[in-house]
Design goal:
The protein has a 5-stranded mixed beta sheet with strand order 2-6-7-8-15. The relative contact order is 0.17. With 358 residues, it is mainly β. The chain starts with 50 loop residues before the first strand and ends with a strand. It has 2 domains: 169 residues, no CATH class; 113 residues, Rieske Iron-sulfur Protein (3-layer Sandwich). The longest helix is centred in the first third of the chain and has 7 residues. Helices cover 4% and strands 36% of the residues. The chain is globular, with a radius of gyration of 19 Å.
Length: 358
């Protein structure tokens, strides 16, 4: 049976190909760099022949540790439609811009009593939070320089184990087969985040590294459905780079499109034998396990730009992180789904994937 990392927070993604130098140009393809110093004769749980050298080598893309945080007013390098990844622990609310993560891919942060690694892969568009506790001790994650299905393989500095970001699993090293303990993150655009959490803290440009934050090292990669830097399986059911929300269950996934929320904002669905509440609009999608004894008709979408998202028939009002901010259950949480945001192609590359409505 697989071991499980100790979860610091009961709640329930990042390789790129840019260099650690000041150059903004990604490499032309695989086979450059030192390959993350992982010998081919070491056991892997994924096909070793499909683990590719991303270019800059191990730590060539520098992960950040406890970055400087600034106010929203101090941010001058983001446009309203730029994406950010948010995390909330009590009154401490923080956002990590894609524009920073494009260049660093992992941010190790301490937020109150939570040690989190915000992992982000610019090549798959996946942002996933992991606990940084291994066997009860805090570690940090770094960028190994390797890719599998064009997706980030982080490594932990405590054991030098390599992990698959999208699989949330150790795939090589002392902890092979161990599952990462995930921490729920929230992705939306900068304009929406500012309205939701105007007093939040933001990871700014003073990282200690010279980078052109706000200018992607990958050009039009995020929007060009035909542009890939590394080989990866393609699924033609949706445009490759369309952003979707994916529920995960074992080796299966189910994808939800933003267009599914054009006419209704709250969807009830069953996946893997479990009921879910999926809530979305043009700017974000979140999902929770359906509370026992409730149906979708017991929830009303009340989001008007501020922090509140849903109201249930007991008078509880819930935010985008699933916390009850008002009502008899104030301070409690909806059970968060195992899910992630990402570019469409990246989901079926790792999981047998259904699409909601198809």
């Amino acid at each position: 049976m697989k071991n499980v990392l100790i979860l610091l927070l009961a709640s329930g993604l990042s390789f790129a190909c840019s260099s650690s130098s000041d150059s903004t140009a990604p490499p032309d393809g695989p086979g450059q760099g030192n390959g993350g110093d992982s010998p081919s004769n070491v056991e892997w749980s994924i096909p070793r022949s499909e683990v590719l050298d991303g270019g800059p080598g191990k730590d060539g893309i520098p992960a950040l540790i406890n970055p400087e945080l600034v106010s929203i007013e101090a941010i001058d390098f983001l446009s309203d439609d730029d994406l950010v990844i948010g995390f909330k622990n009590g009154d401490d609310v923080r956002a990590y811009p894609h524009a920073i993560l494009d260049w660093h891919e992992i941010i190790n942060d301490n937020i109150g009593d939570v040690s989190v690694a915000v992992t982000y892969c610019p090549l798959t568009g996946t942002g996933i939070g992991w606990s940084r506790l291994i066997d009860g001790s805090e570690t940090t994650f770094g960028v190994s320089g390797l890719l599998y299905n064009t997706n980030l393989i982080p490594y932990d500095r405590a054991t030098d184990t390599n992990w698959s970001q999208i699989l949330n699993e150790a795939v090589n090293g002392p902890l092979i087969g161990t599952l990462a303990e995930t921490i729920t993150l929230f992705e939306t655009d900068w304009k929406t985040w500012k309205a939701l959490y105007p007093d939040s803290k933001i990871a700014g440009r003073n990282t200690g590294f010279s980078r052109t934050y706000g200018v992607s090292p990958y050009g039009d990669y995020n929007t060009n459905n035909n542009r890939f830097l590394f080989p990866v399986p393609k699924d033609s059911r949706l445009p490759s780079k369309e952003r979707v929300h994916a529920l995960l269950d074992g080796d299966r996934a189910k994808a939800y499109r933003f267009s599914s929320f054009d006419s209704e904002h709250v969807i009830s669905d069953v996946f893997g034998g479990k009921g879910y509440l999926i809530v979305g609009n043009a700017n974000f999608i979140v999902s929770f396990e359906m509370p026992a004894g409730k149906t979708v008709d017991d929830f009303e979408y009340i989001h008007t730009g501020g922090e509140l998202l849903l109201e249930d028939n007991d008078g509880n009002q819930w935010d985008v992180f699933g916390e009850a901010l008002m009502g008899p259950d104030t301070g409690s949480f909806l059970i968060k789904s195992k899910s992630m945001m990402g570019m469409w192609f990246s989901i079926p590359a790792f999981y047998e994937t259904d699409i909601f409505g198809q």
